Structure formats: C-alpha cells, structure tokens
Amino acid sequence: MTNTPKTCLVGDIGGTNVRLAVADLNGPVISAPKSLSRAGHPTFEGVVDLYLKESGEPVPDAIVVAVAGPIKDGKVKLTNGQWILDEAVLRGKGFGHARLINDYAALGYAVEHLSGADLATIGGDRPGIAGETVGVVGAGTGLGVSALVRDAFSSAVMVTEGGHIAFAPVDDTEFEILKVLLEHYPRVSVERVLSGPGLANIHWALSRIGGAKDPAMLAPEEITTCAVAGTDPIAVRALDVFCGIYGRFAGDIALAFGARGGIYLGGGIAPKLLPQLNNGIFRRCFEEKGRFDSYVGIVPTKVIVHPYAALLGSAEAAIRAFVRPQG
User: Fold this and answer.
1) Which of 75, 87, 118, 123 supports an S-S bond with 283, CB 3.0-4.6 Å?
2) Do the Cβ atoms of 139 and 196 come closer than 8 Å?
3) Between β-strands 134-139 and 155-159, what pairing exists: parallel, antiparallel or unpaired?
C-alpha cells in the first residue's frame, strides 16, 4: 500500500470536454483547473499527459475521475468517443492511487462543499433541515440522480439510475405527450422528456398534438431561444411543460430519498434556465404532493452554478477513499 496521498488529479469527463485540476486533499482545494477538448485524443491518458505538460504540474499522488456511466471492476467504457478508462492503467501512469466514480456521485460528494454563490435558489428561501439528506437531480444530455445520504453519525453517496424511472404524466397534456412518444419508444422514461433531447421530444409531441403530421425535430437550443423570445407558441408551451416535469420529478426524488436537507439541480440545463425555473411552475409542481405537500414544502431547491463542482466532489471522494477511508 502506498503512502497516504496529499495531492490528487481530479477529472470530470463530459461529452465534448474534459475538466481537470489538481486538488490539495487537506481541503479539499482545487487549483489549476482547465478544460481540454476530447477531440483528437484517442485515450484519456493522452489528455492527462497534455494537462500535466501544459500546467507544469508534477504527477499528483492520486487520481479520481468522474465519468457518465456505470463503473464495473474499476473500468468503464464511454459510448461517446469509445474511451476505455481503467484504474489499473492509471496507476501504471505513476499515480499511487486511482479511482473512477460516476459523475453524479461526484456531485453528491460536492454537496458539503457548496454554499453561497455556488448555488442559485429556486422558488425562494426554504428552511430545510440542516444535516439531513440532499438529493441531486440533473437534466443535461441525459438525466442524473444521486443523493448525499446523511444521519447524525455519517454520510454516504448513493448513485442511482433514477433518470430511467418511467415517466408518470399527471394532466391531459402530459398524457397526450406520452401517447405520442409511445409510438416511437417502447418505454418512455423520465429522461425521454427531462433532458436536452427530452425538451426536443416534448416540442415535437406538442406539434403532433397540435395537428402537424410530420413536424421537424428541433434542437433544444433552438426551442429555448424561441421560447424565451416568445416567437414560437409551441416552444413556449414546451418549456413550461419541461419546467413542470422537472419540478414534479425533483419533488418525487425528495420523497424517495427523504431529502429534507434540499434538492440540488445539476447538469447543464438548469443554470441556463434560471428565470424560467423561477417563474413559479417548477416550484408549484415540486410541492404538489397531495398529503405530503407540507413534507416537501420546507425543502429548498437550488441550482449548482459552481463551474467545477464535479472536481470538488472528486476531491472529496479521494479524501474518503484514500485519506480517511471509512470502515
């Protein structure tokens, strides 16, 4: 067993870029953060070499990398780009310790290090219950779900595939959207309507419901731009429906985890839609829980706006794995 690490290279692999930084595990405190393109690099190890060369940093004692996907036996294969990451290979690069973690595990680990300007409040201040579980929900390319599960004695991160829970419509519009989408998908998960592609699915389905026989599938960015500008009524409606589903699902996750410490929104979409998420629809749907309205009514909802939250979480994961491992 190598000595307890003091520094760690932390990483967050996205669809287009890789974010890397060096973490001082006494904090954790991250330094020299940099975003590097995945294009032109056949392996993740090549990106690591480039980062260390450009930053002038020595090889840290450890490496922890957050990736979108399930890790098995210290290995993961990324669909986009076909990278294969292996903890054993990373140790062979000179890192004394190596760990791969799920990207939403990283956000769960980051929760205890986020405060103030790292978070944007949705729906006004709510008291929550300090020290209790915080759920993390994030719509982006897909839909991620995790939680920092806490009691009076300890905490642990729960990683899930909650984004693939079945979509449960609650009103006539959502039922019609489900009917249309079932023509194209054998099963409609929440991710099919609560993600970038999900917003496109909602807009397309609403166009069909409105009478269009073969509507174009618009890009999520185009729908959002038209909705904000008010130039496309269907886009406006699609974004409202999206925010409602987002709020309702986030409230369901609060119930599922008993997350009375808060629900944090991760992913790339929420920071771009702060005004829309604050227009009342999200929070109203979050709290519409029948007999449990009061249970979720105190739960704060916040958007993670810290640009390197996953790197902070990876550093916290390194501390828990290598510095202060729990029995």
Assistant:
1) 123
2) yes
3) unpaired
